[in-house]
Please model this.
Amino acid sequence: MSVKYTWIGHGTHALEIAGKKILVDPFFTNNPATNVSPDSVEADFILVSHGHSDHIADLVPIAKRTGAKVIANAEISGWLQRTQGLPAEQVHGQHIGGGYWHEFGYVKLTIAHHGSGLPDGSYGGNPAGFLITVEDRKIYLACDTGLFGDMKLYGDEGIDLFVLPIGDNFTMGPDDALKAVKLVRPKAAVPTHYNSWPVIEQDAEAWARRVEAETDTKVYVLPPGGSIVI
Ligand code: NI
Ligand code: MN
Model:
């Protein structure tokens, strides 16, 4: 089964799997990398990697308008129910290392080395990434993280598409992102979480050339809003 991946911009992504729309880390309002209005976004599921506002800014209004099921760590799941008015049946809590078969595929939360404080100062648990299995396709969204050696274990599962940050400062920069590709050994990679602000400006084309010179991975440098089908 094919999967359509769209980089909306910064750390916000969309997947289309068997007619289901999956939104990851909804950040539209004040996101310098996209003009998409949060009022027009469609979603059947919303995946939340961590509590930082550049990942959940528009989460609650989009969830309330669309009725999309929200998948997040247990702490963020609890916060959404206790303080943000989402009904329990709309929220699915998981945690790192744990996977669950949702309607569109199997979602496992992965390690991420980062923070996860929520905008109101609440504790947001540990940050995560997502390993999504859809029939014969595997997509690893590293989300906001530094490099870590256990990425190799996720790579052992056979990754078709690896979506990773290269911006530096808040996450892996280009050198560590190249090491990450070598650990994960995906068929394809998409760099994200760069150029949204001056502090994370990077030359993604130059990074792609390095990756393709040193590995067998094909890099797709997408513009914000750009898609690939794997
Ligand atoms: Ni973050
Ligand atoms: Mn971020």
Summary: The mean pLDDT is 98. The first strand starts at residue 3 and ends at 9.
